[in-house]
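As the work plan foresaw, the team has encoded backbone shapes as discrete tokens. One protein thus recorded appears below exactly as we store it.

:::
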Amino acid sequence: MTTSTVAAPTTATPNNDVSNALSDLLLPVVRSPMLDVEEELFAYELVFYRQGAGTDADTTLPDGILSGITDGAITRLVRGNRAFMRMPRSLLLEQTDVLAHTPRLGLIIDPFQVRDTTVIQRLQQLALRNCPLMLDLGRLDPATSEPHGPLEPLLRLARYVRIDAKALDDDTLARRCKQLFERGLGVIAGNVDDHVTYARCKDLPFQSIQGRYLLVPQQIEVPVLTPNRLSLLRLMSALQENNAGPVELGEIIRDDAVLSYKLLGCVNSAYFALPRQLKSIQQAAIFFGVSRMRNWIHTMSLSSMDDRPPELLRAALIRAHMCEKLAQGMSAEQQDMAFMAGLLSLLDTLLCAPMEFVLSHLPLAPEIREALVEESGPFAPLLSQIYAWESGDLQSAQIQPQNIRKMAGAYYAATQWADQVYSFAEQRTH
């Protein structure tokens, strides 16, 4: 028999400090990871998207960036990791002192800036202050002088150089990477949006690789699920069946002491500021609600996969939280399903198998399956908005101008939540 649950908020509420932080950075921004050859995070790029001409973006964007740096919102967004961003010229010339207080925040500079002597002087000052500078070469040959003139002044200031891996043929890519590497520069492979381009880069001396390849499933002729992944799918299947209550949820993961330990550690963390400590999965399910707790078990079990890049796992968590936030206004049941749709939207990439093949192992609600396989149903538009946000396509018909601020708030909240959850999932028990 299923045990009834007491009323509880649909979504766990973070403590006041975190709630205040979520309102600090409502700029249209996405953090794009750069991964090293071990698929660990090297740095984030913070990409700020303008909302179009004819707005006050030229004023609000510099103000928002400056505010985000000075009050620490940007540091929280990147978890204190190294990060690079482009800075508007006005802010670069007038407010560069703020970078002295954020040593892990670097600047991306462009070849055309070599012609701006005032900017060059500022960059020289920043380099002397040990601010990391990344020259974004794209497809340009650093040895040429066209179209911007000799790039040597920028190359001497830069610590890192990014080149467009997708735009260069194999020989040019290898030669350019080697030449820059031998100059003592950290070389970043940019625009790596597919696994073919990634394969061309991974054996070259790149400091890191950046692009949407991370979110794209590899083409596998004959999908094979390892024992660990089959075990994960069995757990997820059990959670979806039989309308389990608090007692049943506890029994489902009773034999997985590590998962239970991490899950209870996460829900009892200071992030949620609970009025009392929850000592069992059953108690947590009663407090948060069965649907919420089931989603949390899905989340923690996926996040515990140690054979996939951590940033891929974080991306799945961010999608889940964003999808749930964008579903506000729907019923509580639909919000829970929206969470699952977002979480499972990267399941094919996580498990290295086609989506239809993976979902055949899971008894999911038809609405979730429709969104993930057919791109239809009530959750497909929410996922479409998230995909557009990730790629910076703010002109998409799915993201109207009045929704930009809502999306920005949802994205920032989702990154904070995902980082919190993953910090517990990656813990190793002794």
User: Anything to note?
Assistant: The CA atoms of residues 246 and 285 lie 5 Å apart. Residues 1-11, 16-24, 53-58 have pLDDT under 50 and may be disordered.
